[in-house]
Specification:
Length: 318
């Protein structure tokens, strides 16, 4: 009797055994919602998305690019909530559309990275042998390529040469596509290693052998059993990779080699503010910087919470 009392007094066992049995997704959600900082991060991301989406509905893109030299370098006021830049464009309006570009670049680049990393790492682990050797050597060779240097070089020589892209009635400078492709094609290697390690352990499980004995094809086993059971690591890597992609775009655009005007991004808004920092136009750099910091912070908090939630051995937030 005393041994039972001692066992049920362990907090994590009480959490696992109390009440009805929970599914894996319910356990993940319970761990996630108990992570206060992660919940703060997701609330911040929702607020940011509402700001960007609702702002685009209220403020047309033409207003964000509208030049008014009579109002140039105006301080924040009731007419211009975040002031104006050197050509009289409203900073508040440009932050709305700059946020769309920064998030679009991050999401599309991460989509490319996650797809490549999952396929390369999964195939390498599942087939093994010479397939594993070749794909891992490709992965290691890609790790030796300095992605930031490549992005700067391509941005300098091709960014202004690529024609404007029209999507859903909106115009984007060709540099947007270059930034997305370079970030996506040079950031999948770490995820490939993570996926490979997970698939190597999963493919030895009994249910994989059972699927093979029942005649399941390799494609079905890979996408039906192996990838879903690696989804936790993929989601966490994608979340943290999103923050890195947004920060990389902002950095390269700040150097004037990323997203090119007239397309607004938070990074190239900071580029336009460089010459006016000493002239007291603090609002030109302060507000884009705050949005970059806020976005990266929220995404990292979300990624930290998801990492703990998907870890079956984590008792940190039980």
């Amino acid at each position: 009797m005393s041994s039972e009392i001692e066992i049920t007094d362990i907090p994590q066992l009480k959490a696992e055994t109390a009440g009805p049995a929970l599914s894996p997704s319910q356990l993940i959600w319970r761990r996630f919602r108990k992570h206060k900082m992660a919940m703060a991060g997701i609330v911040g991301i929702i607020i940011l998305l509402i700001f960007i989406v609702a702002g685009a509905v209220i403020v047309p893109e033409t207003k964000a690019n509208e030049v008014d030299l009579r109002a140039r370098l105006s301080t924040p006021s009731e007419l211009h909530w975040m002031g104006t830049d050197s050509t009289g464009r409203d900073v508040f309006n440009r932050i709305i559309y700059g946020g769309q570009i920064s998030l679009l670049v991050g999401i599309l680049a991460v989509s490319i990275s996650v797809t490549l990393g999952t396929v390369m790492g999964g195939i390498a682990a599942y087939y093994g042998g010479w397939v594993d050797s070749i794909l891992m050597r490709i992965t290691e060779s890609m790790l030796s390529i300095p992605s930031l240097f490549l992005l700067i070089v391509l941005g300098k020589y091709l960014g202004k040469e690529v024609q404007t892209i029209n999507i859903l009635g909106r115009s984007f400078s060709g540099s947007v596509g270059i930034v997305i492709l370079v970030i996506g094609l040079t950031s999948w290697m770490y995820l490939a290693r993570i996926v490979r390690a997970n698939v190597l352990s999963l493919k030895e499980m009994d249910y994989i052998a059972a699927s093979k004995s029942l005649g399941a094809s390799n494609v079905r086993i890979f996408f039906k059993h192996l990838v879903p059971n690696t989804l936790g690591a993929i989601i966490v890597a994608a979340t943290l990779g999103l923050a890195t992609a947004i920060l990389t775009e902002a950095y390269v655009s700040f150097l004037g080699l990323g997203i090119q005007p007239p397309t607004a991004s938070w990074g190239n808004m900071l580029t336009g503010a460089q010459s006016f920092i000493q002239r007291g136009a603090w609002w030109m750099w302060l507000f884009p910087s705050l949005f970059i910091v806020f976005t990266i912070l929220c995404i990292n908090l979300l990624g930290d919470g998801m990492r703990d939630a998907f870890d079956p051995h984590s008792t940190r937030h039980m």
